[in-house]
Design goal:
- By secondary structure, the chain is α/β, with parallel strands linked by helices.
- The protein has two domains: 2-113 and 410-444, Roll (Urease, subunit C, domain 1); 115-405, TIM Barrel.
- It is 20% helix and 28% strand.
- Strands 4, 5, 6, 7, 8, 23, 24 and 25 form an eight-stranded mixed β-sheet that branches. Strands 9-12-13-14-15-16-17-18 form an eight-stranded parallel β-sheet.
- Strand 24 and strand 25 (440-444) form a beta hairpin.
- It is globular.
- It starts with a strand and ends with a strand.
- Mean pLDDT is 88; it is low at 1-50.
């Protein structure tokens, strides 16, 4: 089943250098693009996040507008009451605008959906360790200034940190503009492979246990929305089957699973794979593992880190050529120093000192890669300008795809009837000048 939308106007894409961004999504008929967006039937366990009321209608003009299948070079976006009324060619704007409509002229900028960060351990000097309501608000503000609307604070399965993060989220419920941006938290572990635990402290690794899952849910105050788990562990399938009723999306990762054993995971939907290639059995012509299974499975959503450190560029190209772009979710796996300058101290993570090399941060003693200094906009820029991915496709990896994975059917795209989650970016994605979430302006540069 799909919804067909007809959008008149030129069907061009800028910045990608490749074919128009409409593979499997739209086709041009007599100057009219027929856009087919799948109606994804997600289980009802991911609840709706209430949207704050908007601050009135706004109209953005003079910019490029990134639609799900193309880029409009001289476009406009009109929103009112938290909803997009129009996104398309500027000369097709409705003649009558809402009363009191604010006009924003944005020549040279790109109007895009607000970005998503679904795997982030910190940024701007703020870590998800020992989180408070105040530090959570600082993290949200830092991300808003970079065009990032929704984010899932990510943590390893330390009970103290799960508890403090759950308490922080619970305490911001009275701030709807902030709470609406945080669908929940992402926990990596504790049900993971010791051989593939990566930066997860060994003392936190546990065998799958329904009882301990319930304990984590209680500690988090019911805010866990994604759980990374190794599917090969005894008892993991029973735990994976339990997750939907708890409102938790299973994501396979930190796993040493063999390719053949992963057949048991086929048909689980929705299902994610945590930071593809990192912390998992790999690609081999004799002993294939989780990475190879994820490359070949066309239904699973795969996280992909494009910071140039976590995943070699050749492996990124392999993903882009072998996987449906609709199933790739761009992530940063950023930690607290992300977004700061190279002269800023990198600090510690989980009590261990860090050192920086390139875009990566590593445990100083063991050299284990723990996270990135870059954020999703940086990865998005690399996808467009270095990997030559069409802008619309690259944008979907950071907006529409994570929204679909988490069950938000009215988010992640500039389409009439969708939530007014709008960001204005420079052409190279290094600067955001405006961000709204549900029609509520969150950031605007002077």
């Amino acid at each position: 089943m799909s919804i067909e939308l007809r959008i008149r106007g030129p069907t061009t894409d800028s910045g990608g250098g490749g074919p128009p961004a409409r593979r499997g999504l739209a086709r041009l008929v007599g100057g009219e693009a027929r856009l087919r967006l799948p109606v994804v039937r997600f289980p009802p366990y991911i609840g709706h996040v209430a949207q704050p009321s908007g601050n009135g209608p706004f109209l953005i003009t003079g910019c490029e507008v990134v639609l799900p299948d193309r880029v409009i070079r001289h476009g406009a976006v009109l929103a009112d009451d938290g909803t997009i009324l129009f996104a398309g060619p500027g000369d097709r704007l409705p003649r009558k605008l809402p009363n009191g409509c604010r006009r924003i002229s944005a020549p040279g900028m790109r109007a895009c959906p607000a970005l998503w960060e679904t795997h982030i351990h910190g940024c701007g000097g703020v870590s998800t360790e020992s989180m408070t309501a105040q530090s959570l608000a600082r993290m949200a503000k830092f991300l808003a200034q970079r065009g990032i609307g929704a984010f899932l604070p990510t943590i390893v399965s330390d009970e103290r940190h799960i508890g403090s993060l759950g308490e922080a989220l619970d305490s911001v419920r009275e701030n709807p503009a902030l709470r609406a941006r945080i669908p929940g938290i992402h926990v990596e572990g504790p049900f993971v492979s010791r051989a593939r635990r990566g930066a997860i402290p060994e003392k936190l690794v546990r065998p799958p246990s329904i009882e301990y899952l319930e304990r984590m849910i209680t500690l988090s105050r019911g805010t866990i929305r994604v759980l990374t788990i190794a599917p090969e562990l005894p008892g993991s399938r029973e735990l994976i089957d339990r997750l939907p009723s708890a409102g938790i999306l299973p994501s396979l990762g930190h796993s040493d699973a063999s390719y053949d054993s992963l057949r048991a995971c086929e048909g689980i939907s929705p299902l994610g794979v945590t930071h593809l290639f990192n912390g998992m059995s790999g690609v081999s012509h004799k002993e294939p593992g989780l990475a190879q299974w994820a490359l070949l499975d066309k239904e699973v959503f795969t996280e992909l880190n494009c910071d140039g450190t976590h995943v070699h560029d050749a492996a990124v190209r392999l993903v882009l050529q072998s996987r449906p772009w609709e199933k790739i979710v761009a992530i940063s796996d950023a930690v607290a120093p992300a977004g700061l300058g190279p002269e800023d101290p990198v600090g510690r993570l989980y009590g261990q000192p860090l050192t920086a090399r390139g875009a990566g941060l590593y445990y100083a003693d063991s050299g284990v890669l723990v996270g990135s200094r870059l954020l999703v906009p940086d990865g998005l820029a690399r996808l467009v300008h270095e990997f030559r991915v069409p802008v619309a496709n690259a944008m979907a990896m950071a907006t529409l795809n994570p929204a679909r994975l988490l069950g938000f059917s009215r988010k992640g795209a500039l389409l009439a009837g969708y939530d007014a989650d709008v960001a204005l970016f420079s052409q190279d994605f290094t600067r955001c000048s405006f961000l709204s979430w549900g029609g509520m302006p969150l950031f605007e540069s002077p």
